[in-house]
Amino acid sequence: MAVAAAAKKFRAPRIAIAGATGAVGHDLLRILTERGFPVGSLKLLASARSAGKTLDFRGETLTIEELTEDSFKDVDIALFSAGGAQSKRFAPAAVDAGALVIDNSSAFRMTDGVPLVVPEVNPDAAFEHKGIIANPNCSTILMNVAVWPIHTKVSPVSRCVVSTYQAASGAGAAAMAELEQQARDWVDGKEKVTQDIFGRQYIWNLFSHNAPVDLETGYNEEETKMVVETKKIFNDPDFRTAVTCVRVPVLRAHCEAVNLAFDEDVPDLEAKARAAFADAPGVRIVDDREANAFPEPLLASNQDDILVGRIRKDPSVRSGSALEFFLAGDQVRKGAATNAVQIAELFLER
């Protein structure tokens, strides 16, 4: 696999989107437009069954091509959102063709030499790439954007405990469609709602994240990703995170309840945390106690900022200090597509 030039910058890069027909692929098109990304040319790639279909981009109708090893000639940046198997198969071919790959799957996240990048946290790591840059897990991104300013501006975090409330969109467009279908089935009075994706009723229910569970540790893959990816992104192998991931019957945008512990007592912890959040890129405070107005999935949907609220000191900690807060973020956008485009923006000539 060829090694791309880490310092190469582009004025108007030639872009390819692998997985253009999926939920993240559609949002990549929207976000490239919304952010005014200077696209020199755009190639849309998907499976053979989608080849020949069309999508609109900036007033132009583009025809989708089949994703193959030969798809990346004359491509500067390839944005992959086609799943881990496709990334493992085709990303090396894109690199060999001279493209910089920004991959949204889990295929390369923990691979040595592949940067795992959240631009608000570790943008410089992107320039250490050898052809592939990995987008972290969506829940990891949302958590990291909010935790990083506390960890670096308030006090080093000694332990992070997170519970996630994850929307259907985290499992793709088909899961979103099934949740909508389950709502219709329930309204129609059907004895059993459609259960093709998760094999269980989703509406009016919640359940442990559907990722495979390690029988020894009891952690599922989603939880493990948040633990190990955060260590890599923060460049801190000792950063401690405990996670419980849950699916909730929400179409779009994940939420997370976060508790951060500090070894030392932090005077005026709440005020310092609010100041850090207020100054943090990609974070917006939604915290009105009088109106009981805090982050919600509907408020975060189709937004790029991570909404943070319920900011308060944890009174149960007797030694040191602890902070609690609640966040909501659109994991299709900031948790996937927007983060990938932000990484690509790092390589634009300014």
Automatic annotation (TrEMBL):
Active site: C138, H254
Keyword Cell inner membrane belongs to the record: no
Enzyme Commission code(s) on record: 1.2.1.11
GO MF: aspartate-semialdehyde dehydrogenase activity; NAD binding; NADP binding; protein dimerization activity
Keyword Transit peptide part of the UniProt annotation: no
GO biological process: diaminopimelate biosynthetic process; isoleucine biosynthetic process; lysine biosynthetic process via diaminopimelate; methionine biosynthetic process; threonine biosynthetic process
Annotated pathway: Amino-acid biosynthesis; L-methionine biosynthesis via de novo pathway; L-homoserine from L-aspartate: step 2/3; Amino-acid biosynthesis; L-threonine biosynthesis; L-threonine from L-aspartate: step 2/5
Pfam families named among the record's database cross-references: Semialdhyde_dh, Semialdhyde_dhC
Stored NCBIfam families: asd_B, PRK14874.1
Subunit structure: Homodimer.
UniProt-recorded name of the protein: aspartate-semialdehyde dehydrogenase
Natural source organism: Cafeteria roenbergensis
Organismal lineage: Eukaryota, Sar, Stramenopiles, Bigyra, Opalozoa
